[in-house]
Amino acid sequence: MSENGVLLKNKMNGSGLKGKALTRNGLHHVQVNGSLYPAKVKSRRQCWEVKPSDMAQNTLNPIRAIVDGMKLNPNPEKPMIALSIGDPTVFGNLPTDKVVLQAMKDAIDSQKFNGYAPSVGYLQSRQAVANFYSSPEAPLDAQDVILTSGCSQAIDLAISVLCNPGDNILVPCPGFSLYKTLAVSMGIEVKLYNLLPEKAWEVDLQHLESLIDENTSCIIVTNPSNPCGSVFTKEHLEKILKVASRHCVPILADEIYSDMVSHRQWTRHKTSVFPGCSSPSMASLSADVPILACGGLAKRWLVPGWRLGWILIHDRNNIFGSEIRQGLVKLSQRILGACTIVQGALESILNNTPPSFYSSTVSFLQSNSEICFNELSAVPGLTPIMPSGAMYIMVGIDMENFPDFKNDVDFTERLVTEQSVFCLPASAFEYPNYFRIVVTVPEEQMVEACGRIREFCLTHYRPRSRDSNDLDQ
């Protein structure tokens, strides 16, 4: 008798036909008149017991975990000013360019983009991205581009293709919370490397290197930074690349804020100078380190809800080889990719948006950042750190001078209660005793918010006693 031979004979219920129970592909089947049907197997469950998966249980957004637990009851006598939301469209003062809107209208009217696209995106749209970001130092072709549903999916695919459960990734601290949310849900360990506020949020290179081991799958570098608004110099990026090269660790470069960079240098309240005049891509500086660069339309083009992102595969030395590329293609097939209408408009968006749109956005962010920095620098107990890119400014709180509050979460919660100003506590970025301000609000609201923060701090500020200062010395 063969391996799939007859195991037993049963009389079929109500049919009077004799069947044979066979095993095939690990399942019991009954043979009736030459045809195979799955055999009915009694359920071993005696009652309903449906539980969420381990991935679902392990998925946690640190921002939501903190904010959802806060008691946010604004002062009814003051209109709410939310400086916490990283969406540049919220207040309506930063619309996208009319050329971008027309490109979308044309894509819809053409009726060419109503169907399914390839999971990695239309070839023509991928080529448009490749042309836009290609440089002599880091050439790109359509095959080097994967289109995604926003930069968040790009980051998800990049982590998924590089890491297995039990691996670890190196993530900046403070840093964007999504990295940890994605990694931990997949059983990947997150190691936080320090950014240095006293050096305009540069990477602590020694600490970064000390975290690398044989299970390190990638280093995530965010430049320009969320939540810091910092921009690394070319020299500093090269130092990060040297660390990655020494240990043969690829880099996931989150460059969603690419080119949202101040065009002047800022002299900070201390003697150091914050460099922020350019934001070179990591790939353009890499001699050997393979890089998956993630970006999208959301921030530079001010359309986060359109959900169009991309992965740029930089692998001139063929270290990723075909397997990583094939892995990204396979992972992209889990869903049907980025919105086809936006893909249809993409070539026009990239090629026809006027430079004046970009410069106007950057000038506004720069001006608001300067207002916020100057206003809060004069507030006792606060230490703002001037950004040079993105949409954020981080502000340090000297908690010893605010004994009414336990921590930054308590501080920002009370700021809402008393002044109706909501700043995101930096504990959401695993960096306590700071808060993050989004600088995309209209200028008059920025001025008003800073005035309220000043009033709040003056109410609660308590200078440290002379005795405690003597002890510190």
UniProtKB/TrEMBL annotation:
PANTHER family listed in its UniProt record: TYROSINE AMINOTRANSFERASE
Cofactor: pyridoxal 5'-phosphate
Residue runs in coiled coils: none
Function: Transaminase involved in tyrosine breakdown. Converts tyrosine to p-hydroxyphenylpyruvate.
Keyword Transferase assigned: yes
Pfam families xref list: Aminotran_1_2
N6-(pyridoxal phosphate)lysine found at: K299
InterPro entries: Aminotransferase_I/II_large (IPR004839), NHTrfase_class1_PyrdxlP-BS (IPR004838), PyrdxlP-dep_Trfase (IPR015424), PyrdxlP-dep_Trfase_major (IPR015421), PyrdxlP-dep_Trfase_small (IPR015422), TyrNic_aminoTrfase (IPR005958), Tyrosine_aminoTrfase (IPR005957)
Keywords carried by this UniProt record: Aminotransferase, Phenylalanine catabolism, Pyridoxal phosphate, Transferase, Tyrosine catabolism
Protein name (record): Tyrosine aminotransferase
GO molecular function, one term: pyridoxal phosphate binding
Bilayer-spanning residue ranges: none
Lipid biosynthesis in keyword set: no
Enzyme class at the top of the EC tree: transferase
Enzyme Commission number(s) of this protein: 2.6.1.5
Subunit annotation: Homodimer.
Domain called Aminotransferase class I/classII large: residue spans: 79-453
Gene Ontology biological-process entries: L-phenylalanine catabolic process; L-tyrosine catabolic process
Gene3D superfamilies, per the entry: Aspartate Aminotransferase, domain 1, Type I PLP-dependent aspartate aminotransferase-like (Major domain)
NCBIfam families in UniProt: tyr_amTase_E, tyr_nico_aTase
Provenance organism: Knipowitschia caucasica
